[in-house]
Amino acid sequence: MSTLRSNIDSGSSPIKKSIQSSSVYQTNLPSATKTRDLMAKDMSGHFIGPMPVAEFLKEYLSRTRAKPPRLPKVFNQIPKTTVEKNMYQSFVRWLYISCRTN
Amino acid sequence: MSMCKIVNTSSRPDGDSRKDKKIQPDLSVYDKDVDTSRKVMQYGKLQTFIEFKPDESSDPFCDPPCADITSKERIEFQFEALAKKRMDCRGQFASYATEMLARQHRTRSFSVYVGDPCVRFICWDRSGAVVTEKFNFRENSQPLVDFLWYFNRASEANRGRDTTVRSATQGEIYLAHEYLIRWKNEKDRPVIVFEIQDNDCTREFIAWGSMADPESLTGRATRAYPVYEQASGKQYFLKDSWRAATLERESEILRELNEKGVRNVPRFVCGGDIVGHTTLSHKFSVEDIEQNTPIPVERRKSWKCGVHKLAERIHHRFVEDFIGHHLDKFTSSKQFMKVVLDGFIGM
C-alpha cells in the first residue's frame, strides 16, 4: 500500500499490466476468444466518438476535388438476413457498383 | 473498386500469423494486384477490413439517444458499450487492427463495422481510435458510398501506409538472405527497405522480419530489426517506435551517452523523429479549456462522449551499431548476469 501511495504522490505512472508486457515470452498463449477480451480491456478509454461522418471523411480521406456519386439508396437493395455470411456477396456486388460509378 | 479488390476472408485465417492470432475479418480489402489465390488472408497486405453482424445487438459503441444533450451529460455518457457481447465485438475489431498494424508499417488504419442496418467507420493509430456516429445504410447509403469512394481514390499515405518503407528489389532480397539469415523470422515475412534521413542524405537499410512484434495497438509499438546497409556493406540494428511526445528522443539520449564516453551502450549511427508522422487520435481527445487567449476557447469536441487522456505519439526510428540477442538465447545464468552487470555499469 505504501508503494502505491508513493507512486501516486510522486506523480509517476502506476504499474499497469498490459498485453504488451505480458505476452512476449509466455509459453501459454491465450486463445483468440481470450485475446478479444484482453484487447477490449487493453483499449478501454482509447475510443473517441461519436464523430460525425462528414468530419471523419474531411479529417482523414477527402483530399480530392472530385466528389463521390449521389447514391443514397444503393445499399438498401441488400437482402435482410440473420446469417451474416449471406450478406457478403450482395454487399460486395453493391460496393463495386458504387465505387465504379463516376 | 477500381484500385482495390474485396475478398471474403471470413473462414480463411492468415497462415503467417502466430498460433494465437489466427483471426480474420469477414471482408478484406487489398490492392487489386495482390495475389490472393494461394494466401487469401494476408494481414501484411491488408488495406482495410469490413466486419459484419446480422443486427445491432453487437454494436461495440453507444451513441447518445438525442443530439441535444448537455455537455455535462456528454461527459458522463458511456460511449464504449459494456454488455459482454458488445465488448467482445470491440475486442474483435481491436485484435484485427492490432495484427494489421503489427504486420505492416502504417501511420494509421481504417475499418468498417456493419451491424445491419447500421454502419460505423473507425480510424486506428498508436494513440487510440476515432469512431464515427452510427448511420442507417438502408435509409441512407451515401456516407458508406462516400467512404469507399474516397478510400479507393486516396493516396497510399492517406490510407495510412508508411511511405518511408518500401518493398525490396530482387537484389535486395538476395542480400537479406545472405546477411540477415541468422535472424530469420520463423513465420514468412517480406524483405523491406527502410529509408532514414541522415543530415542531407537518405540512407537505406534492408530488413527481413522484426525480432518482436507489438502486442498492443496503442503505445510505443517498438519493433527492432537487424538490418543490412548495402552502401556501407555493414549490419546494424534498427529501432522503430512511437514515442510519447512528452518524452525525450532515445536517439538523442544515445548520442549524448556516446559523446560522454559512457561504456556498454551501442554507438548511434543515424535517425530520429520522422517528419509528419504523428498520431491524430489524441487531437480529438483534448478536454481542457485554452486559457492563454483573451477569450477562453473550449477545445473539447462538442460531439465527444466521456473523458479521455490520450498521449500524442511521434514516430521515431534510428539505427545503432550493435545487434542484440533475444532474451531467451543466453547459454548460462552467468552469461545472463554478466549482461545485467554490463547494463548497470552503463547506467
Short description:
Chain A contains 5 helices and 1 strand; from the N terminus they run αααβαα.
Mean pLDDT of chain B: 92
Please state the CA-atom Rg of chain B, rounded to the nearest Å: 23 Å
Topology order of chain A in helix (H) and strand (E) letters? HHHEHH
The largest sheet of chain B, given as strand count, sense and whether it forms a barrel, is:
7 strands, mixed
Question: What does this entry look like structurally?
Answer:
The complex is a heterodimer of chains A (102) and B (347). With 102 residues, chain A is mainly alpha-helical. Chain A has helices spanning 2-10, 19-23, 32-42, 53-60, 85-100; one strand at residues 47-51. Chain A has two domains: 1-63, no CATH class; 70-102, no CATH class. Chain A contains five helices and one strand. The termini of chain A are far apart. Chain B has 347 residues and is an alpha+beta fold. Chain B has seven helices and 16 strands. At the A-B interface, helix 2, helix 3, strand 1, helix 4 and helix 5 of A face strand 3, helix 2, strand 5, strand 6 and helix 3 of B. Strand 1 of chain A pairs parallel with strand 6 of chain B.
Q: Would you spell out the secondary-structure blueprint of this structure?
A:
The complex is a heterodimer of chains A (about 100) and B (about 350).
Chain A: H1 2-10, H2 19-23, H3 32-42, E1 47-51, H4 53-60, H5 85-100
Chain B: E1 4-8, E2 27-31, E3 48-53, H1 71-76, H2 84-103, E4 109-115, E5 118-124, E6 129-132, E7 135-136, H3 142-153, H4 156-159, E8 165-167, H5 170-179, E9 191-198, E10 201-208, E11 223-229, E12 234-244, H6 250-259, E13 268-278, E14 289-290, E15 297-298, E16 313-320, H7 333-346
Parallel strand pairs in B: 3-4
Antiparallel strand pairs in B: 1-2, 2-3, 4-5, 5-6, 5-7, 8-9, 9-10, 10-11, 11-12, 12-16, 13-16, 14-15
